[in-house]
Design goal:
Blueprint: H1 2-8, H2 12-22, H3 28-37, H4 43-55, H5 62-67, H6 74-88
Length: about 90
């Protein structure tokens, strides 16, 4: 259900909350959904997805996070940088 909300809900706050909750799932399906959410048009949702990937210790997402180091939003860039450092340790 949360994966569908993350992908399809029109409200960015709801998508962000879904991303946050998926961080606790720590499953391959949740990780895949969170990686997809890194392309969300709303920077707040992207940051929630980054934080959720960090929370779930999804080191497999480092490559996707590295792409966000060039994101137009500085907060997204910083969140990605912090998550990458955390996941590499």
């Amino acid at each position: 259900v949360l994966l569908g909300v993350l992908k399809d809900d029109p409200d960015p706050e709801v998508r962000g909350l879904a991303a946050r909750q998926l961080g606790y799932a720590k499953s391959p399906e949740a990780t895949a959904g969170l990686v997809s959410a890194l392309d969300d048009p709303d920077p707040g949702v992207v940051i929630e997805a980054i934080d959720a990937l960090e929370l779930s210790d999804a080191s497999t997402a480092i490559g996707s996070l590295e792409k966000l180091l060039q994101h137009p939003d500085a907060q997204v860039q910083q969140a990605a940088k912090d998550a990458i450092e955390f996941l590499k340790d």
